[in-house]
Write a structure and sequence with these properties.
This protein is mainly α and 154 residues long. The protein has one domain. It contains nine helices and no strands. The longest helix has 21 residues.
Length: 154
């Protein structure tokens, strides 16, 4: 009886883990859209993925989005440069299309130029940090969706 119960619990846990991976895009985009503390949960997901694999492109994208949204200037450039470094190595069909053809890579480089050329004043940073808590879509959701379509989370 005890073995049956343990087997049942392990089956449920592994089933939930598979479901979470299969619906990764939906889960993180919904959490992000909720705003507020839910964005910290997205960062926690990113950090846990990166703890397992420091080259996990999904974790890198989510972490970079978090740093950018909350204007963590000391981390934004490094985070996005790491996304570019690893993103350039991903060769799955949907990701490559989104990354190269739809200009996600170029958009990130443009963003880094704008950040470097237009430093914000402390008052602007405070204002933007308050806006960061409001509900809005995940900035690079298209890249996460492309990874999902490519089976990255399976």
């Amino acid at each position: 009886m005890k073995k049956l119960l343990v087997t049942l619990i392990l089956t449920v846990i592994s089933g939930n883990a598979i479901l979470a991976q299969t619906n990764f895009y939906t889960n993180v985009t919904n959490l992000w859209y909720q705003g507020g503390e839910s964005r910290s949960n997205v960062l926690a997901i990113a950090n846990s993925r990166l703890a397992v694999n420091s080259n996990d492109i999904a974790g890198l994208i989510l972490k970079a989005n978090y740093h950018f949204t909350f204007l963590e200037d000391g981390s934004v450039s490094n985070a996005y440069l790491r996304v570019i470094q690893v993103g350039d190595t991903i060769m799955t069909t949907n990701f490559v299309k989104e990354w190269q053809e739809n200009k996600s890579r170029g958009d990130i480089l443009d963003l880094l130029d704008v950040i470097a050329g237009n430093p914000l004043l402390p008052q602007q940073i405070q204002s933007e940090k308050h806006k960061a808590l409001l509900p809005k879509p995940l900035p690079d959701a298209d890249l996460i969706e492309a990874l999902q379509k490519d089976g990255y989370f399976d």
